[in-house]
């Protein structure tokens, strides 16, 4: 209907390869955008967290997932920490439940209200 008879009879193949490229190009573009905006930053954040958790040492002050601020007294081999939350109270915490590590010399952030 839209193709002239001369073009249809000339034996020149239709441009089917460019149609495929045009239909696949948006998917490739969306994947590239998602990679740079979502996947890549998430991987770097995971690596940063793993490095933070692997560098926990005795004497560090940690904040747990429940909001408890404690001082690390012992790093155990099975992914646990022994922390001191009070003068006579020591508890064991999973290392993966630590949300923040404050190094010995680092002061706590001032609460500005």
TrEMBL record:
Alphabetical GO biological process terms: protein transport
Transmembrane regions: 20-39
Xref: InterPro entries: Preprotein_translocase_YajC
Keyword Cytoplasm belongs to the record: no
Superkingdom as given in the UniProt entry: Bacteria
Subcellular localization: Cell membrane
UniProt topology in membrane: Single-pass membrane protein
A Gene Ontology cellular-component term: plasma membrane
Keywords carried by this UniProt record: Cell membrane, Membrane, Protein transport, Translocation, Transmembrane, Transmembrane helix, Transport
Keyword RNA-binding attributed: no
Subunit organization: Part of the SecDF-YidC-YajC translocase complex. The SecDF-YidC-YajC translocase forms a supercomplex with SecYEG, called the holo-translocon (HTL).
Function noted in UniProt: The SecYEG-SecDF-YajC-YidC holo-translocon (HTL) protein secretase/insertase is a supercomplex required for protein secretion, insertion of proteins into membranes, and assembly of membrane protein complexes. While the SecYEG complex is essential for assembly of a number of proteins and complexes, the SecDF-YajC-YidC subcomplex facilitates these functions.
Family the UniProt entry places it in: Belongs to the YajC family.
Record protein name field: Sec translocon accessory complex subunit YajC
Organism: Aurantimonas endophytica
């Amino acid at each position: 209907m839209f193709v002239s008879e001369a073009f249809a009879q000339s034996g020149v193949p239709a441009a089917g390869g460019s149609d495929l490229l045009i239909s696949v190009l948006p998917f490739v573009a969306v994947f590239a955008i998602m990679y740079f905006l979502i996947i890549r930053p998430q991987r770097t954040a995971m690596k940063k967290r793993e490095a933070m958790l692997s560098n926990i040492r005795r004497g560090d002050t940690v904040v747990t997932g429940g909001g408890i601020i404690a001082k690390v007294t012992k790093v155990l081999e099975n992914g646990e920490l022994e922390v001191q939350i009070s003068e006579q109270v020591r508890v064991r915490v999973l290392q993966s439940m630590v949300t923040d590590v404050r190094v010995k010399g680092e002061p706590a952030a001032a609460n500005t209200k």
